[in-house]
Amino acid sequence: MKISLDIECTPEEARKFFGLPDVEKMQEALVAQMQEKLAENIAGLDAENMMKTWLPDGMKGLDQMQNMFWSSFSGDKPNKK
């Protein structure tokens, strides 16, 4: 036996029916805080700073990464310089 029910109600009505708390105000505050943090972080992003962070020794770090990839593809152990 299979029974199905279709209930049409708004999320607010369902929340009240099941006795769940209304967290809309808290959610709005958290989203606003997240937007502020994202805006701050995005403002600090530029290509030069990101490259300095990722490759602190300039091209030396890129060479090391390239050697690591080549050694992993060929099955050799990485060369230590």
In words, what does this structure look like?
This protein is mainly α and 81 residues long. The protein has a domain at 31-76. It contains four helices and no strands.
Number of helices: 4
Helix share bin: 55-70%
Average of per-residue pLDDT values: 82
For the termini, the CA-CA separation is 73 Å
- Total number of β-strand segments? 0
Q: How would a textbook summarize the main sheet?
A: none
- Radius of gyration using CA atoms only: 27 Å
Question: Helix-strand pattern, N to C?
Answer: HHHH
> What amount of the residues lies in strands?
under 5%
Helix/sheet category: mainly alpha
**Low confidence ranges:** none
Rough shape? elongated
Describe the structure concisely for a colleague.
It contains 4 helices and no strands. The chain is mainly α.
Topology:
Elements lengths: L10 H8 L5 H20 L3 H8 L4 H16 L7
What are the salient characteristics of this protein?
elongated, 4 helices, single chain, mainly alpha, 81 residues, 64% helix
